[in-house]
Amino acid sequence: MDPEHYEFTLGINLTPEEQELSVLFSGEGRPHPGHTVGPSVHDFYLIHTVLAGSGRFETETFSAECKAGDTFAIIPGMLFSYKADTDHPWHYAWVALQGIGVLDQLRAVGITRERPFAHSGNVPELHSLYTGIRQSFKQSAYPRLESLEASGWVRLLLHRFGRDNLDQLPPHPSEMPEMIDRQIDQAIRWITLQFHQQLSIDHIASSLGYHRVHLSKAFKQRTGMSPKQYLLKVRMDKAKELLASPLTIEQVASSVGFNDALYFSKQFRKATGMPPSEYRAALRNGNEKDTGGSNI
Questions:
Q1: CA dihedral 211, 212, 213, 215 (to 10 degrees)
Q2: What is the pLDDT of residues 181-200, one digit of tens each?
Q3: Which domains does the chain have, with CATH numbers?
């Protein structure tokens, strides 16, 4: 069980296509009262639909109190935050997307960077569509067919958004690996896509049907690192990218899964040999050689 949710389920696409629109993962959860995410940024599109309860979503230019039937969209590079209501925390479903056509698809159904929001009165249908997306990733022997099915569900979901917001509208199958290899692939993708969350290696292992020790041993044989070391490396690599942006150190820390900016700075210094502020200064001065090695 995810420590910040009463309920939490997730389906991850092992073979997202580099195409117009592809699903990365989809999930559903019931976070604890007051559960907060951000301020953060993502490098993929992330759409949430509130199924019950309420909460608040904010970007630098938009904010809304969200209730059942409301949908909010996070767009790559957008600084955002959202928080569950303290009395009636929301139950929501989400889907993450990538692709050169996603932004145009969202605009086509009335969701824009300026107004990343939509509403539908048919919550049961929306819930069913999200369930269809998530259950597409049922670990069959044909992951590319799973990806295709998930993309189909997403297009139906976007169609529903458009139908319910007409006033906002603008005038190769590869051989299947052994199961443990597939589960390691799943764990790697889970970490690389969910590193900004408060991940538990125990939770990942149990969700994949393995004991932590067994998964960690197989994971290290594949990658040369334990899952915990791999997670830290992914976070530090992303932090290096974000330190080249105007985000504050606190916002960078939150974006890579650290609630405590001081602890993030300590881990960053341990991994790179310098604190985040010094690394950023070296980047700005063009001293690439001074920002090189990782100690992970």
A1: 80
A2: 778 888 888 899 889 888 88
A3: 5-168 (2.60.120.280), 177-296 (1.10.10.60)
